Amino acid sequence: MRPLLAILLVSLLASPLRAEQRGEILTAGDARQLPRATTGPAVGHRSASLEPYASIDGPSPAGIAVSAEGRVFISFPGWGDAVQLTVGELTRDRRLIPFPKSSSSELKSVQGIFIDAKNRLWLLDNAARRLFAYDLSNDRRIKDIKFPPHALRGGSYLNDVCVTLALGSGDGVAFISDSAAGAIVVIDLSTGEAWRRLERHASTKADPTVVPVVEGTPLKIQWHCDGIAVSPDGKTVYYTPFTSHSVWSVDAAALAESRRSDDDVATTVKKLTDKPSMNDGITCGPDGSVYTTDEEDYAIRRISPTGKVDLLVQDERLLWLDSVCVAGGYLYTVTNQLDRMAQWHGGKDLRQRPYVIFRLPLNQREGGERSTTARSSRAG
């Protein structure tokens, strides 16, 4: 099976979208019709607590990060659409502007984005094979880390990133999902040293028994470690393969010890839970809960550190939630309708603009799904 990036390029490069790339923060008076699911378990269901926060036109968005001050950043990876800017900021005057303003051309194709406890915005550029950091107090670039060759494979796709300041040699550690090769890449942010983890472990690989079905379309692809998040205390890393229904955890300190054997690290891997749906992005909340974007159910689920699963929200407008983040008491997520891309529909692009940024108060939960607790089990 070809890597997902290659599939997206094959389906889109022949006729790249050239619509204007723009975004707009929505107000209560905005009456723009939003796309919705045509089939599946969420049809006809709307959640009153789910707020359409902003609309996005042009190429597909992927990553989202929101600062403590409420600044909203969106990534637009080079998946074949005509992309004018690979990272944008939604301003308070309701516009989408390039980030950084002065040197946006240095970025090639950013997907993973993350804001750490030092108010640094981390941008994972798969095309450049670099990890950049910007100080959001002045928007200046303060880090430019190039991945060493031994940390990558020929077909590596650097997908998502999370950062903790609790580990490393002074400036924290980044954990990165390699979705094409199936591994976790670890970087010491002080030294730039990088290494691969769990490359031969089943938990970072696609589940061959899973064929996700979204809006009635089977997505026949084997795509590996994708969503990745670190707990607020920096002790646990959570991750999910794209083609899978499982959520896994591993000891963060074990990942961050470069001299520790991979077999030793693998002894700390646990399956947190299984869910009814595959997911794309994940994140952690301030209480340690894990939030997953569950594509087959058009839903977001909340999973406790013990494996208890709650349906947080389900809505027919949640058309392929890509990434998710928590800021200011809200959970933010962005749609990109990946399942409607031409690859899955005989070369016909079925995506409907706008894409949407939604947000949801963290104290909300749907009442229609019973909470479950999955027994945590070690995986060797």
How would you sum up this structure in a few lines?
Helix content is 5%, strand content 39%. The chain is mainly beta and 380 residues long.
State the major sheet: 5 strands, antiparallel
- Helical proportion, percent range: under 10%
Rough shape? globular
CATH class: Mainly Beta
Structural class by sheet pairing and helices = mainly beta
Compute the CA-based radius of gyration.
19 Å
Q: pLDDT under 50 segments (min length 5)?
A: 5-17, 367-380
Tell me the name of the CATH homologous superfamily.
TolB, C-terminal domain
Distance between the termini: 26 Å
Structural notes for this entry:
The chain is mostly beta strands and 380 residues long. It has one domain (4-364): TolB, C-terminal domain (Neuraminidase, 6 Propeller). It has 3 helices and 29 strands. The chain has helices at 4-12, 252-256, 262-266; strands at residues 22-25, 51-57, 64-66, 72-75, 87-90, 96-98, 110-115, 120-125, 130-135, 140-146, 158-164, 173-178, 183-188, 194-197, 213-214, 217-218, 225-230, 236-241, 246-251, 270-274, 279-284, 290-294, 299-303, 308-314, 321-327, 330-335, 355-361, 372-373, 377-378. Strands 1-2-27-26-25 form a 5-stranded antiparallel sheet, with no helix packed on it. Strands 17-18-19-20-29 form a 5-stranded antiparallel sheet. It is globular, with a radius of gyration of 19 Å. The protein starts with a helix and ends with a strand. The model is unreliable at 5-17 and 367-380 (pLDDT under 50).
